[in-house]
Write a structure and sequence with these properties.
The protein is of the alpha+beta class. The chain has two domains: 2-54, no CATH class; 66-105, no CATH class. It has three helices and four strands. A hairpin with a 2-residue loop joins strand 2 and strand 3 (86-89). Helix 1 (2-15) runs antiparallel to helix 2 (20-35).
Length: 108
């Protein structure tokens, strides 16, 4: 399906037209064709399998959440700490234990 969507977008850009309804119809047709596709030796089309799988999926969280690695390294004699194989300058005394959190914020 991803290839069909990419092809539809490239086709749309190539034509240079700004008719969004036409692009939406093309994408809808590609999605409907993909829902009828049967993968390998399976007996049911992907649309049926996706509908069955949907009941097991969780809703997206209402708010973003932090993905973080928390560690408590010790400052070495050079005034650095090592976190995930990378050296960071520490503004603490030697042998001081400091808390480090490498965090990535999700959108939300």
């Amino acid at each position: 399906m991803r290839a069909a969507i990419s092809a539809a977008i490239i086709w749309f850009r190539y034509r240079g037209c700004g008719i969004w309804a036409e692009l939406n119809q093309t994408l809808l047709s590609a999605c409907q064709a993909d829902a009828e596709r049967i993968i390998g030796d399976r007996t049911e089309p992907t649309g049926v399998l996706m509908t069955r799988e949907r009941e097991y999926l969780r809703l997206l969280p209402k708010h973003g959440f932090d993905l973080a690695e928390v560690s408590f390294p010790t400052v070495d004699n050079g005034g650095c700490v090592t976190v995930s194989g990378l050296l960071y300058i520490a503004f603490y005394g030697v042998r001081h234990h400091c808390g480090i959190m490498l965090a990535f914020r999700t959108q939300g």
